[in-house]
From TrEMBL:
Residue span, DUF6596 domain: 195-295
Domain RNA polymerase sigma factor 70 region 4 type: 127-177
Annotated protein name in UniProt: RNA polymerase, sigma subunit, ECF family
Family from the record: Belongs to the sigma-70 factor family. ECF subfamily.
GO biological process: DNA-templated transcription initiation
Keywords: Sigma factor, Transcription, Transcription regulation
GO MF annotation terms: DNA binding; sigma factor activity
Stretches assigned to the RNA polymerase sigma-70 region domain: 28-87
Presence of the UniProt keyword Ligase in the record: no
Top-level taxon in the UniProt lineage: Bacteria
InterPro entries: DUF6596 (IPR046531), RNA_pol_sigma70_r2 (IPR007627), RNA_pol_sigma70_r4_t2 (IPR013249), RNA_pol_sigma_r2 (IPR013325), RNA_pol_sigma_r3/r4-like (IPR013324), WH-like_DNA-bd_sf (IPR036388)
Length: 435
């Protein structure tokens, strides 16, 4: 028997509502439960039980006026039931040959603890999900699951891995946290700084995968960018005095402002020089610039790496054209970034800015100094940048070879097509290198 169309539409609308509520409230619910139970895995299971209850009951009863509070109350009841079962099992075990330990009042204390409003619950959950005891991939998956409220299949699709693999990764991450007895608390002192850098790294990894997909047929995955920005804004609200958090938010907002302009009508890549800047999202630009101002205001001394990168992105955002961009300032920004966090990738980006500010030959000199860097041997942007500079210098045959090499290194189909097209342009219509 088929479901009537009206009922299908109603069910679909309800599922959208439940999904929206879950993404907004899940971190708070899981955080509160984890604070009391001390077990992130159990906390998520209890929160998921509440979500299932909503899907079962709301079609008949309707969406409550305060859906988040309903989910929290339901999760609380599930938690208390779980506590009672554990207490009963312990009593029965003790009655078999051990003295009974009186637990009178514990259940009431436990329930009261769930009723407390602890503003740091979500922050603690972020620090747990991004704990350095976990591998980088596990931190990303667990953050999107626990803090972002994404389903396992959504995360798997976003990162182009089998759902089973992703699910196992999350399960192992929870077991690792339990085995390591990671406390559900916000770290302090030097540990806070170390852990915060891990949190920011995870958010940046998620954003970058959305901004420039490493594999697959799509050049970008905007949903991942949106999720990273949402989590970044939440984090900025939780730790408003941390300059680098505002710096990362600024960087993501400014970069995301160009997403629409990076794609052509058929989803092909559009280079920065060819982008229609009227398609840049001015709302995101303004938000990014405001976040950068907060990063500068809260910085105790020199700006950190995320704020420095945001400053570079701001140079692009403020310019009306590629020619009108302050490339000397961008080159200086990369120089400051390289001094703070030395990296061949940063040097490669500096080479592009140097070429714009001081000529292609100057940029090529920087690039050629990176050709033997081990970290860049499989990095497709090294030959891609070198190809650009060689083409500007009229060395078309060499440029075509570099573009072909770059195409062979990338795993993204859209980028490969762009690079092969650049090689063809250098070779000319007859397949012979242009003069």
């Amino acid at each position: 028997m088929t479901t009537p169309p009206a009922r299908t539409a109603s069910t679909a609308d309800l599922h959208r509502v439940v999904d929206a509520v879950w993404r907004m409230e899940s971190a708070r619910i899981v955080g509160a439960l984890a604070r009391v139970t001390g077990d992130v895995g159990l906390a998520e299971e209890l929160a998921q039980d509440a979500l299932v209850a909503a899907l079962e009951q709301w079609p008949a009863s309707g969406v409550p006026a305060r859906p988040g509070a309903w989910l929290m109350a339901t999760a609380k009841h599930r938690a208390i039931d779980s506590f009672r079962r554990a207490q009963n099992l312990r009593r029965k075990t003790e009655e078999l040959g051990h003295s009974l330990v009186q637990a009178e009042g514990l259940e009431e204390d436990w329930a009261a603890a769930l009723d407390e409003v602890v503003e740091d619950d979500v922050l603690r959950l972020v620090f747990i999900a991004c704990h350095p005891v976990l591998a980088r991939e596990a931190r990303v998956a667990l953050t999107l699951r626990l803090v972002g409220g994404l389903a396992t299949d959504e995360i798997a699709r976003a990162f182009l891995v089998p759902e089973k693999t992703l699910a196992q990764r999350i399960v192992r991450a929870k077991r690792t946290l339990t085995a390591a007895r990671v406390p559900f608390e916000t770290p302090t002192g030097a540990d806070f700084t170390t852990r915060l850098s891990s949190v920011l790294e995870v958010l940046y990894l998620v954003f970058n995968e959305g901004y420039s997909a490493t594999a697959g047929e799509d050049l970008t995955r905007p949903a991942l960018c949106q999720e990273a920005m949402r989590l970044g804004r939440i984090l900025a609200g939780l730790v408003p005095g941390e300059s680098e958090v505002h710096g990362l938010v600024a960087l993501m907002e400014l970069q995301a402002s160009r997403l629409a302009a990076r794609l052509g009508p058929d989803g092909e890549s559009v280079l920065l020089a060819d982008q229609d800047r009227s398609r840049w999202d001015r709302v995101l630009v303004n938000r990014g610039l405001a976040a950068l101002a907060r990063a500068e205001q809260t910085a105790a001394g020199a700006l950190g790496p995320y704020a420095l990168q945001a400053g570079i992105a701001a140079c692009h955002a403020r310019a009306r054209s590629v020619e009108g961009t302050d490339w000397a300032a961008i080159a200086a920004g990369y120089e400051a970034l390289a001094a703070l966090t030395p990296s061949p990738v940063v040097e490669l980006n500096r080479a592009v800015a140097v070429s714009r500010a001081y000529g292609a030959a100057a940029g090529l000199e920087v690039v050629d100094g990176l050709r033997d860097a081990p970290a860049l041997q499989s990095y497709h942007l090294l030959p891609a940048v070198r190809g650009d500079l060689l083409a500007l210098l009229g060395r078309h045959a060499e440029a075509a070879a570099e573009f072909r090499r770059a195409a062979g290194l990338t795993r993204n189909e859209r980028e490969r097509a762009l690079l092969l097209g650049r090689a063809g342009d250098c070779a000319g219509p007859a397949g012979i290198a242009a003069p």
